[in-house]
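Sync notes, pocket subgroup
Present: LS, DG
LS reminded everyone that the earlier model was apo-only. Rerun requested with nickel (II) ion included. Inputs:
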Amino acid sequence: MLKIIKYPDDFLRQKARAVKDFNDPLLEDLVSDMIKTMEMEKGVGLAAPQVGSDLRICLAKVDNALFVLINPEIKAHSRKKEIFEEGCLSFPGKYFPVERPVKVKIKSRDINGKKIKIKAEGLLARVLQHEIDHLDGILVIDRAFPKIRS
Ligand code: NI
């Protein structure tokens, strides 16, 4: 199990870099350790920077469906937004109201480097947006409504 980096550690603020070598055996190890860590911590999502990696990898587990996204990008989102309380393993025990688009379309790679597309809505859309934010060093407090000074 990996150690979760907590706010205000500066590591959470870096921009992660794209995964280039999908044959690197360390990639599979990292993803599998991330999955175990997310499940142990009872999280619905986890991003690599939260466990000390600077790679663009994130996970979501919603309704027992596990998503492993490598180099994900949000390609489109609905105009309709919703405010919902979000937690984050880097802010244990805290919840922040965040407004986000209800639906998103995401282009990504899977663990083998294969291109995948995901259309998400509801909780899954929210979790994926939250995790992709982590890859850019953006945290839930940056999007919290009303604005929180960090
Ligand atoms: Ni988070």
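DG: Residues 88-90, 130, 134, 140 surround nickel (II) ion (CB under 6 Å).
LS: The first helix runs from residue 25 to 40.
Action: DG to write up.
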